[in-house]
Amino acid sequence: MKEVHIGVVLEQTGPFSLEELCRACGLPREWIIELVDHGVLEPQGRGPERWRFSGAEVGRTRRALRLQQDLNLDVAGLSLTLELIDEVRYLRRRVRDLETLLGR
């Protein structure tokens, strides 16, 4: 019999509490709080007990974790790196849109 796997794309769901984000990413609460303190993540709500994270924040948290593991970056380095990655993605999107507009 063929094995069937069922899953949920977390980046398209939410919102998540702090504890749910920690479980989804396998990270300690303190690390998520540090990411918020450095502006890497921007939850809705006041204070950790009321924070709500979007599905996109799950993806951003996972990217931050990969960067930290692969490049051994501290949280300030993660913040800068993710900001630059976001800027590159934005600029690539703009170039693609302009090329489409110009018919290239």
Question: How would you characterize this protein structure?
Answer:
This protein has a single domain, classed as Orthogonal Bundle (Multidrug-efflux Transporter Regulator, Chain: A, Domain 2), CATH 1.10.1660. About 8% of the residues have low confidence. It is mainly α and 104 residues long. The protein is globular and about 50 Å long. It has four helices and no strands. The longest helix has 28 residues.
Q: Top keywords for this entry?
A:
Multidrug-efflux Transporter Regulator, Chain: A, Domain 2, 104 residues, mainly alpha
Could you outline the blueprint of secondary structure elements for this entry?
Layout: H1 18-25, H2 29-37, H3 55-71, H4 75-102
Helix pairs in contact: 3-4
Structure at a glance:
By secondary structure, this protein is mainly α.
What is the helix tally? 4
Note poorly predicted spans.
Answer: 5-12
CATH class: Mainly Alpha
Strand residues, percent:
under 5%
> What does the overall shape look like?
globular
Mean pLDDT: 88
- In which range does the helix fraction lie? 55-70%
Distance between the termini: 49 Å
Q: What's the Cα radius of gyration?
A: 17 Å
The helix/strand class is mainly alpha
**Major sheet details:** none
**SSE arrangement, N to C:** HHHH
Label the CATH architecture: Orthogonal Bundle
Count of separate structural domains: 1
Tally of strands: 0
